[in-house]
Write a structure and sequence with these properties.
By secondary structure, this protein is mainly α. It has a single domain, classed as Winged helix-like DNA-binding domain superfamily/Winged helix DNA-binding domain (Arc Repressor Mutant, subunit A, Orthogonal Bundle), CATH 1.10.10.10. Helix content is 46%, strand content 4%. It is built from five helices and two strands. The chain has helices at 14-19, 25-36, 64-73, 77-83, 89-99, and strands spanning 44-45, 56-57. It has a two-stranded antiparallel ribbon with strand order 1-2. α3 (64-73) packs across α5 (89-99). It is globular. Residues 1-5 have low confidence and may be disordered.
């Protein structure tokens, strides 16, 4: 059985491994997502003190997974916004992008 971690393109790069310890592909992608959105208004936050470290919409305790479940269930953005009027369409889009 092939080790998936060994396939990671940056895993064996000594420059990257010195400054960014990569334990898993998932961790790398999460790191990349969070850091590439630092210049933008960051809409997803990950804080161990909020919702046990689950990704949430920034400034709320609404987990990304809840929004994704609502979308999967078939609710429109409008219906989600009616349920949570303090979030925006951009927050919902950020949840969808985060899931990819």
């Amino acid at each position: 059985m092939m080790d998936v971690e060994s396939l990671h393109p940056l895993k064996n790069n000594p420059l990257i491994s010195e400054c960014l310890p990569i334990k898993s592909i998932r961790e790398f992608l999460l790191y990349k997502y969070v850091n590439q959105n630092m210049s933008d208004e960051k809409r997803i936050s990950i804080d161990p003190e909020i919702c046990h470290g689950k990704p949430c919409i920034k400034g709320t305790r609404i987990p990304v997974s809840l929004i994704l479940e609502m979308i999967e269930y078939g609710l429109s953005f409008k219906e989600i916004l009616e349920e949570y009027p303090h979030i925006s369409v951009e927050d919902i889009k950020a949840c969808s992008i985060f899931a990819k």
